[in-house]
Amino acid sequence: MTSLNQQESVENNLIKIIIKSLKNNGIVHPVKNIIITEPPELVGEHYTTVAVYVKVMFKETFIKPVNLFVKRFPSNESQRQLMKELRFMEREASFYNDFMPFARNFCSRYPSGEDLLDCFSKCFYADEQLIILENLVLDHGFEMLSRDELQDLKKAEVVLRNLANYHAVSHAIISQQGLEEFKSKWRLNITVSVGRNHPFMQLFTTNGVRNCIKIIENSKKEGRQLVLDYLKKFLVNLSTKWQKIFEYPEEKFLVFCHGDCWNNNILFKFDPNSKEITRQVFVDLQVK
């Protein structure tokens, strides 16, 4: 159980870090008040961390308040120590502090490269216990789509395109730096492989194809039969095909991955009139 004094100490430390991080990011206006809240929609959505909204108000009333999204360890000291030992946020902090500045600079050397990593939010501060990001929901109108509703192909295309950009950037850096230098410089995760021929991987793929067939069979989309015929044919002798799928040098597809890319970790911004997607952002990385 967390004492009131311990809770107050944690909050005071957070406020100090917020003020310092704002100054480090060019926001030097005198702060009047900082309000920390835990919106109901965030309760229970983060199993190892606590997510809160932070509103920073300034003494000059004409200056617009800044809203931040903060992910931090629980206030309970024993829980905090366990999370620290397990290094739950260390990789994500390293991603924002080290890799992203380098990668953005790398992209800026190429025509139209500046926007390749626009699928990640601005980070104000990150360490092994705390990450402070811009609040895209409150300040920029982003929204998280319901995980209980099916989404359309257009949204999937946007997400996959941004993932491809992210993967391509890390692959390009590996190609220029060399694999060994890349590994030594960006120690974001230790990859554990179950192997190309592991029975679990074959079962995983087979079940995935079968699930796709079930979904499409219940669909009324035009062209469904063509896709069904292809998938059912693909399912035949899948073990043999599995071997051919992975007949490539492992180094060829080494890239950084999000690590937890699903509905709850994706934000969209829509044009208020056309309802078209104007930007999509990944959050809550488990970088691999």
Outline the secondary-structure elements.
Blueprint: H1 4-24, E1 31-37, E2 50-58, E3 66-72, H2 77-85, H3 90-108, E4 123-126, E5 130-134, H4 136-140, H5 153-177, H6 179-185, H7 199-217, H8 224-235, H9 238-245, E6 266-270, E7 277-282
Antiparallel strand pairs: 1-2, 2-3, 3-5, 4-5, 6-7
What does this structure look like?
Strands 1-2-3-5-4 form a 5-stranded antiparallel sheet, with helices on both faces. 43% of the residues lie in helices and 15% in strands. The radius of gyration is 22 Å and the shape is globular. The chain is α+β, with helices and mostly antiparallel strands. α5 crosses α6 and α7 packs antiparallel against α8. β4 and β5 form a beta hairpin. The protein is built from 9 helices and 7 strands, in the order αβββααββααααααββ. About 2% of the residues have low confidence.
Number of strands: 7
> What is the overall number of helices?
9
How are the strands of the biggest sheet laid out side by side?
1-2-3-5-4
- Indicate the multimeric state: single chain
Whole-number mean pLDDT? 83
Q: Could you estimate the helical fraction of the residues in percent?
A: 40-55%
Helix/strand/pairing class, anyone?
alpha+beta
Uncertain spans, ≥5 residues at pLDDT below 50?
A: 190-194
Distance between the termini: 33 Å
Report the principal-axis shape: globular
Content of β-strand: 5-15%
- N-to-C SSE string, H for helix and E for strand: HEEEHHEEHHHHHHEE
Radius of gyration: 22 Å
- Main sheet: strands, sense, barrel: 5 strands, antiparallel
